[in-house]
Write a structure and sequence with these properties.
Helix content: 25-40%
CATH architecture of the largest domain: 3-Layer(aba) Sandwich
Distance between the termini: 18 Å
CATH topology of the largest domain: Peroxisomal Thiolase, Chain A, domain 1
Strand content: 15-25%
Number of domains: 2
Shape: globular
Strand order of the largest sheet: 5-4-6-7-1-8-14-13-9-10
Order of helices and strands: EHEEHHEHHHEHEHEHEHEHEHHEEEE
Number of strands: 14
Structural class: alpha/beta
């Protein structure tokens, strides 16, 4: 059977830059930072007291109190982002198609705060006082399950758990499921709510976090010589993916087309990336090969770009390996400089940024790039958005454990 074409028809997001896609995109293009002092808990005893929190989010604006109490924060984010995506897609899941609608939502950690609260209750109060929904609120597939229940989607339903590549892998696997004919529609993306006491303390313990507490907006500095770590973010990003024929038959408007997905493993270290960027390069090359795209056809790269000393250098090496001299001509931006690192949600949000760049001809900037690192010498679109026609974009997502995930997106140019 000939592989089916896969288009994006809806997008939704809850991020440190806004409570929907239009607001998030507008703030990204404007180069605004979503980083500030931590308010979700008392961080005064920690070395890191800043994060990119979602601001102004009240779950009761989107769901009733009973459902809100049964959902961890990461699940609430995922459900609300899905509501926006499905609304834009104009998707109604009828009995006729319910068995062919999948839900795949990636998350690295799942219900972190619910787990921490549950341990505290069980140890210091009584196990009998535990919330009866602790398990469905903690498990990493809790978001995909909640979405499937809410929508009545009875196709494949699971979570991808590949650290910071989880959201991109969810989209990639959804793409493959539709191409193969296993689904006609997939709700795919990522969600995370890991700005917790243990989350911040643990990431800082391995040296991954910026400690620029006195300069929150300037803390995440991808590709800058003075970068000292990433900043924790949170939120969700969800896309509606459809078989092209099905989308057109129901009158949906394709926003962009997904044409390639590549995933590899460094098989190198639990935390550090391969110092030569070999695994990341193989993922990019694989995604381009499967898409049938030559390196010279790529117009924009949304980098993983965490602002950590190792990642930025190795990602730069990987891009040079794949694109050669052409690497110096491709705009590359690191939007985590504004959103922080949304862990399992970040790859999905950056796919949305690629769609918006393709549709609007605007490349979001890498903010805080004041003193370029000599080892990071590509065009990182420093500090200001840039107008540029984008037909083909790729987005990189790399994660602890050596996970590498790359998506290739293309302007919708008709059937």
């Amino acid at each position: 059977m000939r592989p089916r074409r896969v288009v994006i028809t809806g997008m939704g997001a809850i991020t440190p830059l806004g409570l929907d896609v239009p607001t998030t995109w507008a703030n990204a293009v404007a180069g605004r930072s979503g980083v500030g002092p931590i308010t979700l808990f008392d961080a005064s005893g920690l070395n890191v007291r800043i994060a990119a929190e979602v601001k102004g989010f009240d779950p009761l604006n989107y769901m009733d109190a009973r459902e809100a109490r049964r959902r961890d924060r990461f699940e609430q984010f995922a459900v609300v982002a899905t509501q926006e995506a499905v609304r834009q897609a104009g998707l109604r899941i009828t009995e006729e198609i319910a068995d062919e609608v999948g839900v795949i939502i990636g998350s690295a950690i799942g219900g972190a705060q619910t787990f921490a609260d549950g341990v505290e209750t069980a140890l210091h109060k009584s196990p009998r006082l535990l919330h009866p929904f602790v398990i469905p609120m903690v498990i990493t597939d809790g978001a995909s399950a909640q979405i499937a229940i809410e929508l009545g989607a009875r196709g494949p339903n699971f979570a991808t758990v590949s650290a910071c590549a989880a959201g991109a892998d969810a989209i990639g696997i959804a793409y493959e499921l539709i191409r193969s004919g296993d689904c006609r529609v997939c709700i795919a993306g990522g969600a995370e709510a890991s700005i917790t006491f243990i989350g911040i303390a643990a990431f800082d313990r391995i040296g991954a976090m910026s400690r620029r507490n006195d300069d929150p907006a300037g803390a995440c500095r991808p590709f800058d010589r003075d970068r000292d770590g990433t900043v924790m973010g949170e939120g969700a990003a969800v896309l509606v993916l459809e078989d092209l024929e099905f989308a057109l038959a129901r009158g949906a408007e394709p926003l962009a087309e997904i044409i390639g997905y590549g995933a590899t493993s460094d098989a190198y270290h639990p935390i550090a990336p391969d110092e030569n960027g070999a695994g990341a390069a193989r993922a990019m090359a694989k995604a381009l090969r499967k898409a049938g795209i030559r390196p010279e056809e790529v117009d924009y790269i949304n980098a993983h770009g965490t602002g950590t000393p190792l990642n930025d250098k190795t990602e730069t090496l990987a891009i040079k390996t794949v694109f050669g001299e052409r690497a110096y001509e491709i705009p590359v931006s690191a939007t985590k400089s504004m959103t922080g690192h949304m862990i399992g949600a970040t790859g999905a949000l950056e796919a949305i940024f690629c769609v918006m760049a393709i549709r609007e001809g605007i490349i979001p900037p890498t903010i805080n790039l004041q003193n370029p690192d000599p080892e990071c010498d590509l065009d990182y679109v420093p500090n200001q958005a840039r107008r540029k026609e984008v037909r083909i974009a790729i987005t990189n997502a790399f994660g602890f454990g050596g996970h590498n995930s790359v998506l290739v997106l293309k302007r919708w140019e008709g059937a």
